[in-house]
Write a structure and sequence with these properties.
alpha/beta, seven-stranded mixed β-sheet, 14 helices, 13% strand, globular, binds pyridoxal-5'-phosphate
């Protein structure tokens, strides 16, 4: 008999697994090239060549014992220093290795910081639509995840509603920009206002409210947009970063937590996060991947490819009558479903061999997410299916 909590998670994961199974089933019937899978966020741009050469060089020239050792649970100091230097250059900061904890991707970082900060029953406030795994991360530590309702059409955070929903028990406010699934970037003005509200609420309740900024898509910003640095606006901000999307290394499981010295109980948070990395069973982020990203953290992400995908898909979908905002970052389009029931809409899309993700998986019914980190050819070939799907609703 598995635990009650896990039983719930198994049931909730069933819909996701069904989607994968259905994808495979359709691929067997029609051939993989005739099924258009816009369901997952697995980057289609190859990792930069420097990643491969760094890996080869490290494997050939590093002492074998050192290469495969456990590292500090916070990560290798020289790696953390290299990343701190990179951030200092880019954002005019003065971080040291003390401010960084290497993690098993953003997922590892989020779990580590939740374990570090939250007691059972304390609240995490986030904004719908949100990455569905947040529910599980909250459950892992017995915290309560509450979501501020979606704010269409621009999907910027509804700060008045946030202010109403913050309570004495709110320990964490969790944001994600550039956003999965909407592609929205929270601009500097929004972050500044959000920070003001949090500061007021900290005073009102006499509590610490940590702003956790989940930023795996930080480098994926279009049209010259800048993603504001949240730590400049709020003293209690912590950044969760990952190389999964920026360097196309999702399977390598590498990222970091940036914990500025200004956060409340800084020493405890840093110590706690190192220990959380260990006791959650990560022990340390993968040693070889740490060494690779230290050498490759200056690499610039190939945004042009995704930008091309974005333009092609967005323009075509608008022409066909779909409603959606042009994404400013990440690699997702969040489109209004052509019927109220987004799950039924995704079911109908399958008849056109399109695999989409219902907005309800992100706490936002009536929309679907289209993940465009796919080959250009997939989009080109899928366009007639998107058109036929839209027309099937006009005929009704
Ligand atoms: N946060 C968001 C918003 C994501 O979209 C993802 C992955 O898609 C993650 C976290 C987890 O990323 P990682 O692969 O670095 O664990």
């Amino acid at each position: 008999m598995i635990s009650t909590k896990m039983k719930e998670m198994v049931e909730q994961s069933a819909a996701l697994s069904a989607m994968f199974t259905e994808g495979k089933r359709l691929a067997e019937i029609y051939g993989a090239e005739n099924v258009y899978d816009f369901g997952i966020g697995n980057p289609n741009v190859p990792a930069p060549e420097t990643v491969r050469s760094a890996a080869m060089d490290l494997l050939q020239h590093t002492d074998v014992l050192q290469l495969h050792s456990y590292t500090d649970s916070s990560g290798i100091p020289a790696v953390r220093k290299a990343i701190a230097d990179n951030l200092n250059r880019r954002f005019g900061k003065a971080y040291t290795e003390q401010n960084l904890i290497m993690t098993v991707g953003a997922a590892g970082g989020l779990n580590v910081i939740c374990k570090t900060l939250l007691d059972a029953g304390e609240e995490i406030l986030t904004f719908a639509p949100y990455f569905g795994e947040y529910d599980n991360y909250a459950k892992n530590v017995g915290a309560v995840l509450r979501a501020v309702p979606p704010n269409p059409p621009d999907f910027l955070p509804d700060l008045n509603r946030m202010a109403e929903m913050i309570t004495q028990r709110t320990k964490v406010v969790l944001i994600n920009s550039p956003n999965n699934p909407t592609g929205v970037i929270y601009d500097a003005e929004t972050i500044a206002k959000l920070a003001d509200v949090l500061e007021q609420k900290e005073k009102e309740f006499g509590t610490s409210i940590y702003l956790i900024s989940d930023e795996p898509y930080r480098e994926l910003a279009y049209d010259g947009r800048q993603v504001p640095d949240v730590t400049t606006y709020y003293h209690n901000a912590i950044v969760v970063y990952s190389y999964s999307k920026s360097l196309s290394l999702p399977g390598d499981r590498i990222g970091y937590l940036l914990i500025p010295s200004t956060v409340d109980a800084f020493e405890d948070v840093i110590m706690g996060a190192g220990i959380a990395n260990r006791v959650l069973g990560f022990v340390n982020a993968p040693a070889l991947q740490q060494m690779i990203v230290a050498r490759c953290c200056e690499e610039v992400t190939d945004v042009a490819f995704y930008n091309g995908n974005r333009d092609l898909l967005y323009q075509a979908l608008r022409e066909y009558g779909y409603e959606c905002a042009k994404p400013q970052g990440a690699f997702y389009l969040f489109v209004r479903a052509l019927e109220e029931d987004d799950v039924a809409f995704c079911e109908r899309a399958k008849q056109y061999r399109l695999l989409l993700t219902p907005g309800s998986a992100f706490g936002c019914k009536g929309y679907v997410r289209i993940s465009y980190c796919v080959a250009r050819k997939t989009i080109e070939q899928a366009l007639p299916s998107f058109l036929a799907l839209a027309e099937s609703y006009q005929k009704k």
